[in-house]
């Protein structure tokens, strides 16, 4: 008969191992999620089966996010994605009192003032969606295919700076990945290094 503490150890070990297995990996099913947008509407990943989904972690106070929104780069890619029938969800995982935390009305005003064009903005103040995807930075982007499989995770582009002048010089990883998928080609860089501010859980 095993001692009680050993049973606890085994249960803990199994939990840790299960958590490791659940980490997001390209080529495997994307972590399921349920989130509420700025209008109070619930979104589930399962709702978008049959569609390509982009998840974009954002924080309006982060200089790296300001780089791409200030230059219109993210808005342009959101519109391109929508024209392809892609569902683009911006996710705000900043906790209350942390940098980037906003109310639903403030998030909507940011969308309006920046002329952004996501399908919806999901508010994730408890960090459930962010932690499920192990989102590390703002921006940090993920692409999920029509079958619910994760096919891209990483940065928006290849130059890890806050300088908008670097955008035209960079490889736009997300834009390239979506174009490759639309052409029926494999994604040439399915995992890249995200850069930006840390997600403020």
State the helical fraction: 25-40%
The CATH superfamily is Glutaredoxin
**Global mean pLDDT:** 91
- Characterize the main sheet: 7 strands, mixed
End-to-end gap = 42 Å
Structural class, from secondary structure content? alpha+beta
Would you identify the CATH architecture?
Answer: 3-Layer(aba) Sandwich
Say how many strands there are: 9
Count of distinct structural domains: 1
Count of helices?
A: 6
Biggest β-sheet: strands ordered side by side in the sheet: 2-1-5-4-3-7-8
Indicate the CATH class.
Answer: Alpha Beta
Q: What is the element string, with H for helices and E for strands?
A: HEEEHHEHEHEEEHE
Low-confidence parts: 1-21
The radius of gyration is: 18 Å
* Beta-strand residue fraction: 15-25%
User: Would you give the CATH topology?
Assistant: Glutaredoxin
Shape: globular
């Amino acid at each position: 008969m095993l001692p009680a503490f050993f049973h606890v150890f085994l249960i803990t070990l199994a939990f840790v191992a299960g958590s490791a297995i659940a980490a997001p990996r390209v080529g495997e099913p994307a972590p399921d999620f349920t989130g509420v947008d700025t209008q109070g509407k619930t979104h589930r990943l399962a709702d978008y089966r049959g569609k390509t989904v982009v998840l974009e972690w954002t924080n309006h106070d982060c200089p790296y996010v300001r780089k791409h929104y200030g230059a219109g780069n993210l808005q342009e890619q959101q519109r391109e994605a929508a024209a392809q029938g892609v569902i683009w969800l911006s996710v705000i995982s900043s906790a209350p009192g942390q940098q980037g935390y906003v109310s639903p009305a403030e998030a909507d005003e940011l969308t309006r003032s920046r002329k952004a064009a996501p399908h919806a903005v999901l508010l994730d103040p408890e960090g459930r969606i962010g932690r499920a995807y192990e989102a590390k930075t703002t921006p940090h982007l993920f692409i999920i295919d029509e079958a619910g499989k994760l096919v891209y995770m990483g940065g928006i582009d290849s130059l890890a700076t806050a300088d908008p002048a670097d955008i035209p010089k960079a490889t736009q990883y997300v834009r390239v990945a979506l174009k490759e998928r639309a052409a029926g080609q494999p994604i040439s860089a399915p995992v890249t290094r995200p850069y930006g501010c840390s997600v403020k859980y």
